[in-house]
């Protein structure tokens, strides 16, 4: 038996009804439903989206952080850090984007949904590592992509392109050492060579 995808407008209405006052904003764009909830309601909203019979989002297929500080050249007003989750219901063949903004730009903190969807584990660690978003309740929140001695969060818009420190192996001391970055920032524009009839194309 084939199950057809739910109409986005119908899904929007279903999600809005299930979450009620927890919805801060909900919209259909490019055929996809995006719902924004407040940080205080994030965990409860996630449980409803997983368990409500008309939602059944049993899988979290992606979670990432976003830094909106330079969005539209810094003209966007509002909170800086956002956590974006993509949810899938295999049972009902429907998808949803769930967004929550951290209420404090200086200490971005939201609840962990790892106990609801265990696939969130490494995704939340990545958002912590790259954006500095803290996931309260995560059982093993530590860096996952950068080195343990890494300073800062490299996906933040104010992080320098060349970083703060560099790491290298020192043969004399026979260990890894950290030192201030010595790389001079430069811009490289690649030279493009187009040959006639390249690859047999005309």
Strand content: 25-35%
* Rg (C-alpha, Å): 22 Å
Q: How many helix segments?
A: 3
Biggest sheet: strands, sense, closure?
Answer: 5 strands, mixed
User: What is the CATH superfamily label of the domain at 8-146?
Assistant: NADH:ubiquinone oxidoreductase Nqo5 subunit
Helix content: 10-25%
- CATH class group of the domain at 8-146: Alpha Beta
Mean pLDDT equals: 90
Q: Choose one word for the global shape.
A: globular
Uncertain runs are: none
Distance between the termini: 48 Å
CATH architecture of the domain at 8-146: 2-Layer Sandwich
Strand order of the largest sheet: 1-2-5-4-3
From the 3D structure, determine the CATH topology of the domain at 8-146. Beta Polymerase, domain 2
Please, what is the oligomeric state? single chain
User: How many strand elements?
Assistant: 9
**H-E string:** HEEHEEEEHEEE
Q: Keywords for this structure?
A:
about 200 residues; alpha/beta; 3 helices; about 15% helix; two-stranded parallel ribbon; 9 strands; Beta Polymerase, domain 2; single chain; 5-stranded mixed β-sheet
Describe this protein's structure.
It is globular, with a radius of gyration of 22 Å. Helix 3 (120-131) links the parallel strand 6 and strand 7. The chain contains 3 helices and 9 strands, in the order H-E-E-H-E-E-E-E-H-E-E-E. It has a 5-stranded mixed sheet with strand order 1-2-5-4-3. It has a two-stranded parallel sheet with strand order 6-7. The mean pLDDT is 90. The chain is α/β, with parallel strands linked by helices. The protein has a domain at 8-146: NADH:ubiquinone oxidoreductase Nqo5 subunit (Beta Polymerase, domain 2, 2-Layer Sandwich), CATH 3.30.460.
